[in-house]
Design a protein that fits this description.
The protein has one helix and 15 strands; from the N terminus they run E-E-E-E-H-E-E-E-E-E-E-E-E-E-E-E. It is mainly β. It has two domains: about 5-75, no CATH class; about 95-210, Jelly Rolls (Sandwich). Strand 10 (about 145-150) and strand 11 form a beta hairpin. It is globular and about 50 Å long.
Length: about 210
């Protein structure tokens, strides 16, 4: 084998980067260190192949091998029909639930707590209700409403709430919201979304409707 052609093995896998050392062989050879899996490389005279051509060749081979080896196992596709997986760190669009008095936006739904935004149209009212397990606090973001609350129907007290005011509804408290103007209300509660016992409802809903 002539002085201008040599064979050598590269045994240190680092990640698929080509390093050119032109200072070592300005007249006879070009040495390329292809940092990847064990590979036989041939050093040829500088005039045989343009350095950029050899560099592109080694980069292409190394990264293609790395990609096709690792990509199929890096992110396996979900099983057919499986529900989409949502990362806990990704934003998402709140779930909207239409109501006869307006709508709810459920922006947090976990095993520990629930967060809602309620929009009540002027003149509309929620049912007179209580919760057997659910504990909640409401905060009036905008508008004005009359909030009725008491330990029983006979003990109800009407309270005028304005924007910026809050009310804690403990378990078992009978209560109802009536919107004087359009209202936006934040609600933070325990995760008992279906825990509602209706006593009166102007829209004719049964207790199981939620």
């Amino acid at each position: 084998m002539g002085p201008s052609t040599r064979l050598r093995f590269l045994d240190r896998p680092i990640g698929g980067v080509v390093t050119l050392h032109p200072s070592r062989c300005r007249t006879k050879t070009r040495h390329f260190s292809c940092q990847g899996s064990r590979r036989l490389t041939r050093c040829t005279p500088a005039t045989a192949f343009p350095p950029l051509t050899l560099m592109a060749l080694f980069v292409n081979v190394s990264f293609q091998r790395h990609f096709f080896r690792d990509a199929p196992n890096a992110h396996p596709p979900p099983a057919l029909g499986a529900p989409p997986q949502r990362s806990p760190n990704l934003k998402y669009i709140p779930r909207r639930v239409e109501k006869p008095w307006g709508y709810e936006l459920i922006w947090a739904d976990t095993s520990e707590y629930v967060g809602k935004l309620l929009h009540i149209q002027a003149g509309e009212a929620l049912s007179l209700q209580y919760h057997e397990r659910k504990d909640e606090t409401i905060h009036l973001l905008s508008g004005e409403m009359r909030f009725s609350a008491g330990s029983s129907v006979a003990d109800l007290e009407d309270i005028n709430l304005r924007a910026g005011e809050s009310f804690h509804v403990s378990t078992g408290t009978v209560h109802r919201m009536i919107a004087i103007t359009d209202c936006d209300i934040l609600e933070a509660s325990t995760p008992h979304l279906d825990d509602v016992v209706r006593l009166e409802d102007r829209y004719g809903r049964v207790p199981a409707d939620g």
